[in-house]
Protein: V-type proton ATPase subunit a
Organism: Paramecium sonneborni
Amino acid sequence: MSFFRSKKMKYYSLVIPRESAWVVMNELARLGQLHFVDYDPQLPMINRPFANYVKRCDDSIFKLSSLELLLKEFKKNLNYCENVDTLLDYFQYIQKNRMKPGHTYFDELEQEIELKKLQIQEQSTNLQNLLERVNIITEQQMVLEKAQDILGQSAFQQQKPHNPNDYQQLKFGQLIGVIDKEEEVRFKRIIFRVTKGNAWVQIMDLNNEEVHNSMRKSFHLNQDKTQQPRCLYVIVYPGMEEQSSLKMKLMKVCDSFNRQRIEYPNSLDQLQRRMGELNQQLQEAKNLIEMTKHQLDQSLDELVQQKQGCNCSYFEYLRLYILREKYLYVNLNYLTMRGSIFTGYFWLPDGLEQIVEEKLRNAMRNNLDNYPTGQIQEMKPQYTPPTYFNLNEVTMPFQEIVNTYGIPRYQEVNPGLFTIITFPFLFGVMFADIGHGFMLFLCGIYIILWKGYLSKQQDSIFNVMIPYRYLLILMGFFAFYNGFIYNDYLSISLNLFGSCYSPEKEEWKREQKDCVYPFGIDPVWQASSSSLNFMNSYKMKLSVILGVIHMLFGILMKGVNNLYFKNYLDFFCEFIPQLLFMVCTFGWMDFIIIVKWLNIYPNNAAPSIIETMINQVLKPFDKPNTPIFPNEPELQLQITQILTLIAIICIPWMLLPKPFILGSKNNKHKVSMSDSQYQPLVMEKQVSDSDEDRNQQFQNDLKNADNLKSITEQSHEEHDSGEIWVHQMIETIEFVLGGISNTASYLRLWALSLAHGQLAEVFYDMCLAGKLDTGGILGGLLAGYFYLVFAFLTFGVLMTMDVMECFLHALRLHWVEFQNKFYKADGYLFVGYSYKKVLNEHLKQPNLK
């Protein structure tokens, strides 16, 4: 059962010739079951043999990302890959038809990407330059038109004064141009200071951004949101001399704002001639824009189109192939190169050896140069294997809950298997409500049935919840189920099976002594005055019972681990005393709770559980005044004395034997493993006659590698007796005190359930109770209003915040109270070398709104 324990792993060495490295790694990646071991994790990637290839792949991906921005800018919709297996088959089909070595295909694609990037970026730059030129021409036209409206015809008339000596003083010059709208106030202030108020300044909005965007819209281009609003300025100053100091100052000020300053024509004919030239230039620029955009569209369409047999756009094909190629070289860097061979190590799930050998034979057949592909050989592992589970859509979210705390140790009991039931069940105990649980259940059903549609809604909150849909539906189911146990429907009890009580003189009396409500709590309890006390007592005791059962199960799993790993010392010196201690203390307390539920005590003199547990320790020889077993105090005294004695004995049993036994072994633990060595792996029948010299060199390299040590040597672990004693003392104290604190921690099941029920009751009483009795139109409007308030409060507080709160508390109970009983959580995940996995991680989906 691969989910109860991780799959068994075997350790292999791989030796392949350098010429066949790409072909072999390409075949093995389709299998997806090899976990390559880095021969030197401390060595930077830049110092590895194929670091340059990885860098080239990154450069190509960066170039594609810049092209993707252009595709989005010009509204080109890409067809994304939906089936990675089909795409990988198409990759293989392309490789076979090329009749060239497989690794050379990346060189061809790299050159193609570079050429396309240069071509498309050049076209895009030309288009932007033409658009900017159109903006400048359009801006000049608008400036001349508005300046003419401001200055009028009088600007072109030469006025001659009566006194020739005053001729220059009666002439006025003008400057026109453009500034940013946000610079308007600063521009006026500077002009005023420079001219000392001896100039007339008029500023008018150009509305250039509207004209600019309408022009881009006419070419089917996106709007330019970076376009700044601009203003026309007209400055009229005294004097018309070309070299006057005032004019030079004004020109410097205008030029300092880094916008256009336009020479205003001296006559109406020049103005009309200038406007005609601008119209001609504008038309030429628009024609060039049409041609450039058409060429750019053709280049971009080549990236958008699908090739025959491919299930995605050519751009997506390039991106995913480059990612695949980078992934291959990254894993190839995990191998060490010595001479003409690569040597490496990998973990493989048990039973897949023949499949790997078949892949190597396929690599031999696919190798055009008929180079030998090498072989694998099983070796003695040097360290702990990785942890590998076969997960599916149902088990994945529960395993993620476990992995977030820590990865399971190799072959230890996996808490994820039990979490499938215990996690949503404990959540349901805290979130117990028929109505709220059913809504959560419906939410999970909705995501399961409409998964395909929701996966394409990138902005939808349900899209994020798709991987956890089965967790959600189980949480809703158990909340619904526990709601029936508590008989709680939006704070209202449902009388589904008929109550065992009937009202009589303002009291509730039992109709028949042997009457029992078939399922859950009798609804009459909610109407009684002792409803809150009864439900609190019931939920609190039920929480303690569930908690102790949960922890006892965790201790049992520790025993299962000890037996599986043949760790009999921990089995007899830790598991057995821990189990006995828990059963004799908190297990006995649960037993008392159940016995008290099953018995009817005379005169309602029911024993106190807390008093019984305290007297068990403080008064071990006194008979109880109110025994748990009616009329049998001697029996209870004997049982409590035996259980107390066993619990006391278990404490030194956990503390002393293990350190003494370990200390007798020279006060040290030593873990040593023999070093493995390479063996000649390539058989003579794999060597072709045509390449005898090359293959002879390959055999010599194999012999040179025969004396090399394995990649990892596990250092000897040493523990002196002092460390053993300290460690065991901490473990014992933690377990004994943790038994109390962990049991108390399960009371959160009661506390959260109480809080949920009280909030639901408050919302119902404040919003609905008594608000639905008003008749007429006003009553209907008030009922609708208060129902909306009730719905929003229920969703905002109970269906979101309380769901998250119960989820987090369920996490705490599993991580701390349950898993610390047996779970080591010091493993590391099996990371299969798989094209399918890495491409699935990088798939993109269209955003359908």
